[in-house]
Amino acid sequence: MLLSVRDLIVEFYTYRGIVHALNGVSFDLDKGEVLGLAGETGSGKSVTAFSIQRLLPANAKIVSGKIVFDGVDLLELSEEKMREIRGQRIATIFQDPHTYLNPVFKIERQFLDVLKYNDPEIKALENKKEAERIAFEKAVEMLKKVKMPAPERVLKMYPHELSGGMKQRVLLAMAYSLTPDLIIADEATTALDVTIQAQVLEIMKELQKEKNLSVLLITHDLGVIAENCQKAAIMYAGRVVEIGDVKKVLISPKHPYTQGLLKALPRTDKEVELVGIPGTVPDLVNPPTGCAFNLRCPYAKEICRTKVPPYTLEEGSTVACYLYGGK
Amino acid sequence: MVTEVVKIENLTKHFPIVGGILQKTIGYVYAVNDVTMSVREGETHGLVGESGSGKTTVGRIIVKLTNPTSGRIIFDGEDITRVKGEALRNYRRKVQMVFQDPYASMNPRMTVKSALLEVMKIHSMHKGSEYEYATKLMERVGMSEEHLYRYPHELSGGQRQRVVIARALSVEPKFIVLDEPTASLDVSVQAQVLDLLKELQKQYSYSYLLITHNLAIIKYISHRTTVMYRGVWVETAPTQELFKNPQHPYTIALMSAVPVPDPTLRREKIILKGEPPNPIEKVVACPFQDRCPYVMDVCREKMPPDTDLGSEHLVRCWLRA
C-alpha cells in the first residue's frame, strides 16, 4: 500500500459558515496502480488532492483523519519534512497549466530551478556550473520523453509562447523529472482540446508504465477514468460513495448516484436516452442529515435521511448505501 | 417540404490585429474562412470544433453581434447581412442566443422577473399580459412562479441556464443559437437542460444552431452536424450518418479521441500529432494539412473541393475528391 487515506474530514471557514468539504474520505492506492477519482463540482475531489499535498488554503482545516503515505502519516510531519515529500515523492499536475508557470521567467529557468532544489544528485553537486549543465541535459531529456518537439528551443521560450497542450507537457516533464512515487493529476487534461487531451493522456500512460508509478487521476470525465484507470472511486458531497474495479463501477454501478451519473451521460459510442438526476448537489454549509444523496435518490428510505450509510462490500465494489448489506 | 430558416453562404470573418503607436493593422486573425451551412425549421444543426475553430464566431455573426468580412446571411428567404434600424430590431426578436455562462448573461441586480419583462417591453411583446406570460415561461422551462422573484445569485447553475432559456423564448423566436449551453453545468444537470431543449423544440418547432466541442452532446441532440477546423467547415452530414461513416481524417481523429466511459471497450486511438492551429496564418490550402496523417502534396497547394458523397454528406478532403 503506497497511499492510504482514512476518514478524512476537512472544513472550510467562510463568511457563509463552515463548509463541510470532506466528510470522511477513505481510499487506498497500491504501488503501480492508477485510481480514478470522479465526481461533480464540489464533491471534494480537489480538496482531497490538496489535503494529500497539505496545500489547503489558510481558511481550511483538516479536522481529523489519516493520510498514510509509504508508512508515514503525512499529517504528522513537520512542514520541512513535508516539503521534501512534495515534488520529490508526490507530484501534482493541475488543471490550468498557465497558473503554474511563472509568466516572467523562461521555461529553462523554472525547469532548472525545480531540478536544482529538488533533485538529490544535482543538489549534491559542488560546482554550480556543472549542476546547471547537468540539470539542462536532464530537462531536455525529460521534454523529449513527453514528446515535446525541439526541446532546446522550448526551454528558451516564455510560457505565453507555448500552447496549452505544450505548457501541460512542460509541467508533466517537471513533475516526472524528480521520479516521484505518486502522481496526482487534478483535472490535468480538462482544459485541453480532445485531440490534445488524447496526446497528453497517452504520454502519462507511457510514463506511468515505465516507472510503475502510482497515479491518482482526478476528473469529472468518466470516459477518461474508463480508459486510463484500474480502479474508480466516485465522490459525492465530500465522501467516496463507491469504489472498486473500474469495470465493476462503470459497467454494473451499485450506488444510486453512480447509476444516475452514468444514465445522465451523453455518449458517442451508443444511442442512449438521457435521464438527469433530479435536484442539485447539496449546499455543504448545510449538508443534509444521513446520506448526502437522499434528497435526489429514487430509493431513499427512512434510515437514509437520518444515518450516514456505512461501507459494505457488494460484488467486489465497496459502496456506502443502505440498499446493500442486508439493511 | 423542408424550409431553411437560416442559411449562411461563404461566410468569412477576419479580425484585424492592431499594433504600434499609430494603431495600424499589422495582421489578421482569420477566425472564419468560408463557412456555408443552413438550419431548417424544427431542426438542430450542430457546429462542432475545438477551441479556435471559429464556431462561436459563426454563431455571433448569425445573431449579428458582429459583422462578417464577407459572405451572406439569409433568414427566412431574406438577406439580412446588412440590415439596420427597425429591420435589425425585428430580426433580433426572431433570433436569440444562449451563452455558455448563464451567470455572465444575467444582470446580478435584476430579478428574474424584471429580466424577462424587460425583454418583452423592448420588443413590445405580450402587452398587458407580460407577467402572465413570464409565469407561463417559467413553467415551460420547469421552474415555478416563485423563482421570478429571485436574483441570479439565488439560483443554481442549472436554474440560471433555464432562466436564460426562458428569456430567449420570451420574444417567441424562430431560431436560437445555443453556444455551449451546458458546458458550465454538471453532468446530472446537463441532462435535464438538454432534455428541456429537446422537449421545447418538439412542442414549438424551434430551430437551433448548437455550438459545442462535445461530440456526445451533438450525437444526442442534433439532426445534422458540421465539423469545423481553423474556420473552415471540413465535413457536414446528418448526425447519424456522420457518426456511422465519418470521412474527413479530422472528424475520424476527433471521434476516436473522445474518451468513452466503457472500460471493456478497447479501441485503437488515433493520436494526432502537432498543436492546434495558429489562426493568424491565412488559410490557403487544406486547413488540416499540418496534422493530417495522410497529407499529400496537393493538400499543401490547394483548398480541397466540396465533395458530395450523397445523402447530404459533404466533405472537403483531397482523399475523397
SSE order and pairing:
The complex is a heterodimer of chains A (327) and B (321).
Chain A lengths: L2 E12 L2 E13 L4 E5 L6 H9 L6 E10 L2 E2 L5 H10 L1 E4 L13 H12 L1 H5 L3 H18 L5 H5 L8 H14 L4 E5 L7 H18 L2 E6 L2 H7 L2 E6 L2 E7 H6 L4 H8 L38 H5 L4 E4 L2 E4 L7
Parallel strand pairs in A: 3-8, 3-9, 6-7, 7-8
Antiparallel strand pairs in A: 1-2, 1-4, 4-5, 9-10, 10-12, 11-12
Chain B lengths: L3 E16 L4 E17 L3 E5 L6 H8 L7 E6 L2 E2 L5 H10 E4 L13 H11 L7 H11 L16 H13 L5 E5 L7 H18 L2 E6 L2 H7 L2 E6 L2 E7 H6 L4 H9 L39 H5 L4 E3 L5 E3 L5
Describe this protein's structure.
- With 327 residues, chain A is α/β, with parallel strands linked by helices.
- Chain A contains 12 helices and 12 strands.
- In chain A, a hairpin with a 2-residue loop joins strand 9 and strand 10 (239-245).
- Chain A starts with a strand and ends in a 7-residue tail after the last strand.
- In chain A, 46% of the residues are buried.
- The model of chain A has no long low-confidence stretch (mean pLDDT 91).
- Chain B is an alpha/beta fold and 321 residues long.
- Chain B has a single domain (4-312), classed as Rossmann fold (3-Layer(aba) Sandwich).
- Chain B has 10 helices and 12 strands.
- Chain B has helices at 55-62, 85-94, 112-122, 130-140, 157-169, 187-204, 215-221, 239-244, 249-257, 297-301; strands at residues 4-19, 24-40, 44-48, 70-75, 78-79, 95-98, 175-179, 207-212, 224-229, 232-238, 306-308, 314-316.
- In chain B, the strands form 2 sheets. In chain B, strands 6-7-8-3-9-10-12-11 form an 8-stranded mixed beta sheet, sandwiched between helices.
- Chain B is globular and about 65 Å long.
- The mean pLDDT of chain B is 90.
- Chain A binds chain B through residues 40-41, 163, 165-166, 193-199, 201-202, 220-227, 246-247, 250-251, 260-269, 272, 274-278, 280-281, and chain B through 50-51, 156-159, 186-192, 194-195, 213-217, 219-221, 243, 253-265, 269, 271-273, 275-276, 291.
